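Q: Protein A?
A:
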Amino acid sequence: MRHELKTWSAYYESALSGKKKFDIRKNDREFLLGDTILQKEWDPKKEGYTGREAEYRITYALSGVPEWGLSPNHVILSLEPVYRFGRENPEATKVFELIEKARSQFPYPECDTGKGYHVTKALDAVKDLMNKADPLDTISGIQSAFQYRDHKGSLADAMKTVQTFTAKIYLIEYLQDKVDQFMPGKYNCAHITIEPYGYDRRIRWNTYIVKLGGYGVFGFTDSPVD
């Protein structure tokens, strides 16, 4: 589930920079592991939204511990960014910096048709695309982060194995390493299939099953994986 929450500018900036990886909120709704939060920046001085937004995924929720000084009406959420296109995202900013660095190494006159010319033209095209993209559009080839859990005997045990991946290739690498520990070279996890499996109300996952022919079921993701 996605929660849209008003976030004051100071806290919005701290989270966006990566310094603040948690949030304290009124526990007035059901925050669950895997839910996403869309922080909508609010300027208290102007008493209005700025139009900036950033998305995060809940990786842990702490509540019900008044003995630790936490009000029963509040919850502490551990957050990780959902990587999206746009200059406001720290990861996108790194990409821009790398583009500028690479471009500076290949200056070219318009009459140059050599390798440097084509490299810089390609970098300029990527940069132009990023500038035009909607900040909440998913990066081509890199979808928003998804969660994966191993197939276990019980849901409780399975949820202990939850991991977050930002691309299918990283899930494949994880599964390949896991299989090769016991059956090196026998299976190629690049051929895994990820298919709809149904909605799991217990954890509110739109579940997709991950399996490999000849091997069986590896586990499940909380969203489709391209």
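Q: Protein B?
A:
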Amino acid sequence: MKSLIIVLAVLIAVGLCVCTIRAENRQVIGGMTLKAVSFEMDENLVIAKGKASLTSKEASVKADEIRIYLEKGKSNKLVLSKATATGNVVIHARQTDQATKTSRVVDATAKSATLVQGSDSLELTGNVLVKVTDPQLEKPAEVSGDKVTVYLQKLKIRVDGTSDKQAEIDVTPVENK
């Protein structure tokens, strides 16, 4: 369970953190690339619409729309305040443990994803399914529900279902032989 939370936390840090912006139909954002059919931008907001994707070496986020909210930080530079992905959200990330050189893969789908800087949480909502493939697991771990909240600093996860469909976590660790 702790591995799942760590993976989800890394996924968000890698997949949705944004620092600086450059114009075109392709935005370079802190070592990441933002692509879309169209962009709307002003001083504090970048909206990528239509087949929007945010990719880096380690992760990608795809959605119908990605919004990146910026604010002036302590050194008067623009920093991320909030990032949202809405409509057919698909997240894919790979994390390699530097000590063991093993890697794990996280794939998630949802109707929306929101990261608010300072709130220390990532929220996936709407028919959420998260799959984690890890060598320490017998089979990919699955987390599903209507809402999944990952508390990044606390390494805590909350999964909520609805009255019609319960939340579910399915994790099978590899047994020691």
